[in-house]
Amino acid sequence: MSEITKEEVLNYHKKGKIGIDLTKPCSSQHELSLAYTPGVAIPCLEIARDENLSFEYTNRANLVAVVSDGTAVLGLGDIGPLASKPVMEGKAVLFKKFADVDAFDIELDVHSVEEIVATCKAISPTFGGINLEDIKAPQCFEIERILKEELDIPVFHDDQHGTAIITTAGLMNVLDLTGKKVDEIKVIVNGAGAAGISCAKMYKALGVKNIIMCDSKGVISTNRDDLNKYKAEFAVETEAKTLSEVIEGADMFLGLSKAGALTKEMVSKMALEPIIFALANPVPEILPTEVKEVRDDVIMGTGRSDFPNQINNVLGFPFIFRGALDVRAKKITEGMKMAAAEALAALAKEPVPYYVKAAYHNDDIAYGKEHIIPLPFNKEALIWVASAVARTAFEEGVARVDSYDDAEYREYLRCLIYGCPEDK
To answer: Are strands 299-302 and 275-278 parallel, antiparallel or unpaired?
Structure first.
């Protein structure tokens, strides 16, 4: 991975990373009349007659709000709304680059659940979906819950669900590769913030029965009286108090905590062929090189691009919103999330495109212990994930469209990526 300098980064960010471009011509008197007065009155009246036509006659069907109050930014913490803006612009870049979804970044200088909910509700007529980002726990749980109940557009907190979807895909393929049974494995989740709790919920939905969660104070057990209701859901009856005590015999370690949290001694106590997702950023809970010093049977993933099995949320949110927007979904359901994970797991088993191998200078990339999830540059992820999400939305009855043809939609997505052949 090439090194980047502070000067290079700051130059890249000068004047921001996103802008607005026109999708229709406006270079004559006639086109001006179409774009604005008097012509604009016609679609206005059509939408006043039927609000669903807002998806037809405006950009709402392809527009997402990236909303943050800057209280839990990346590994930077509570840096405030203005300092969070480069990250939210970056999120908009990824939406556009990977799924051709337009996104506006909206940084809020309010922080209570009530204020953020009220603001999102007030601006919701502008957007086809809302991506909540970098809002601290436990407020983020309540904000998403209320908005999902009260709005009729998809609301998705990526910090929670993105990591859950992608690590669930990885877990599915580890179970496939090792032959382990989902209801028999022992999973340790180290880090009980938004992502950790969402991951644990999704693993339960997959069928995992034995999940032990740890936070900065140790094992989340029924003996503790300092747990909020979200952590309390995962409290287990145990006298164990530390990660070191519960890691013995574990089949999976998910780290969403800090560098060094997992030691080589702990790794040596895990079950045969364990999976370790060490996702602390930029330095993981343990480095793959350290793991290899004590075990050669570990399947390892990090959040970094310089090691195999990168857990990168860009494999999720752009494609999930693409599918949801294209069927005009009213929400993103648990079924849609699981469908996205299943699609990623299935795609990892497919032959890796030549351009992906070229991007990573590796001709040997193939499904196995060092390739359990697709790589971020695999364009096929858009087709697989978006279609799975759209299909599930339609089947579950949360889509506004009257019909859905999966083969036709996948072909549309393929044209979006690679271009369509000219009509003969």
So the answer is: parallel
